Backbone:
């Protein structure tokens, strides 16, 4: 089978590459010529561990190629994936499906013979129906099915998530389409990956409901961390005690400065807007969105409080600006809220991130970017940890004390044990735990 992947963003590029690793001939298509030229030169436009070598291997094997020729690629394909962006519409908070429908229209014009059109983009309920209607209008004689196949890839571990997923969800109306998808995912059947076949409507909702539930766990544990600080409990003990319950699970129970990234902020808002459209408001999700927005701003004021309530003229060395480690993604990162508030209150910011600085420069002004962690924290009044990159977990404490004006660490990821900070003689402010002075 031949596969076309429309869109070479994060999801499209990873998914297309992994399907080629399964042995299929995959063509990744994008309208942006500069991006395709970059890929054809062997350069990868996103940061994802292991992706570059996987692309190189499959390009050399002749299974993976990149092109701007939309029509030719679709014409030759049995399966066409739509993996374009669905950003939030600024005017009303709904998912913007402009790129999805544009891709569907072009597919309708170019397809030849029976074609399975698959939405890999995260889309609201009823999108598959709308694509079906659009394709029939553009090409009344088209022989096709529309399938929903949401992605569940975590940035930083996307290849492993694709190759060994918890499950694969396929929303299809016909047995013919289901059989095509079975062939596509045959390598995962062989390792007994659960494959959930359902309707497109259920599949579309599964994606939004999954991300919204995980976002709810994050918002919940962040509020419990606040309570721990007030009552003297330890959030790490509380999280462990909660997570050992199989009904709850231990994942996404780590406190932090609020969730960010390409999925949780956008998908929670889209689900809330979809529910309102159907006159069935999801008040829990609406509360999660509000709590997370407030969380990020509250963290900035936590830093100010740790610095004695006044940061005017003080230097804060920031470690990490991406929303999570092992990615260069800045979308809805907590740093986008926290750093500007610190600057508005008079702080001078020096910062370092192992992968995200070039991406981050488009979002910030007046930041002194450094090439390593020690340069960022030199002569600082406070070291602020915003992203839990592994290289920040083993900093030389004595060297830090010698470099800084004052040995004060505000750790919004809880990467250090309290005893380690106490023994090092460093003032240490973390989340949901005792303040070490």
Residues:
């Amino acid at each position: 089978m031949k596969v076309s992947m429309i869109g070479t963003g994060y999801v499209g590029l990873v998914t297309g590459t992994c399907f080629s690793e399964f042995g299929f001939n995959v063509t990744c298509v994008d309208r942006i010529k500069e991006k395709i030229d970059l890929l054809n030169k062997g350069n990868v436009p996103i940061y994802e561990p292991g992706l570059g070598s996987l692309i190189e291997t499959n390009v050399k094997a002749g299974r993976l190629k990149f092109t701007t020729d939309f029509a030719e690629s679709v014409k030759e394909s049995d399966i066409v994936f739509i993996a374009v962006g669905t950003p939030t519409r600024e005017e009303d908070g709904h998912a913007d499906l402009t790129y999805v429908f544009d891709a569907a229209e072009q597919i309708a014009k170019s397809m030849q013979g029976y074609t399975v059109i698959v939405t890999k983009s995260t889309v609201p309920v009823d999108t598959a129906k709308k694509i079906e209607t659009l394709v029939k209008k553009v090409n009344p004689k088209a022989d096709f099915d529309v399938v929903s196949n949401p992605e569940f890839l975590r940035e930083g571990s996307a290849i492993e998530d694709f190759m060994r997923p918890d499950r694969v969800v396929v929303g299809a109306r016909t047995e013919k389409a289901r059989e095509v998808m079975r062939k596509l995912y045959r390598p995962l059947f062989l390792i007994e990956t659960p494959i959930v076949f359902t309707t497109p409507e259920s599949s579309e909702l599964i994606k939004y409901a999954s991300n919204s539930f995980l976002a709810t766990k994050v918002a919940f544990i962040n509020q419990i961390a606040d309570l721990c600080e007030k009552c003297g409990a330890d959030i790490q003990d509380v999280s462990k005690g909660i997570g050992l319950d199989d009904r709850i699970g231990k994942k996404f129970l780590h406190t932090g400065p609020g969730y960010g990234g390409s999925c949780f902020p956008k998908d929670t808002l889209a689900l809330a807007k979809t529910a309102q459209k159907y006159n069935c408001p999801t008040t829990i999700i609406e509360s999660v969105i509000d709590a997370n927005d407030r969380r990020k701003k509250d963290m900035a004021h936590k830093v100010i409080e740790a610095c004695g309530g006044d940061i005017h003229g003080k230097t804060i060395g920031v470690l990490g600006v991406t929303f999570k480690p092992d990615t260069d993604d800045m979308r809805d990162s907590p740093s986008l809220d926290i750093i500007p508030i610190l600057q508005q209150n008079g702080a001078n910011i020096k910062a370092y991130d192992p992968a995200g600085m070039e991406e981050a420069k488009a979002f910030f002004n007046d930041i002194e970017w450094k090439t390593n962690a020690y340069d960022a924290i030199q002569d600082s009044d406070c070291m602020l940890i915003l992203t839990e990159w592994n290289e920040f977990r083993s900093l030389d404490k004595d060297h830090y004390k010698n470099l800084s004006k004052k040995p004060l660490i505000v750790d919004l990821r809880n990467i250090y044990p309290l005893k380690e900070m106490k023994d090092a003689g460093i003032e240490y402010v973390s989340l949901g735990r005792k303040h070490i002075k």
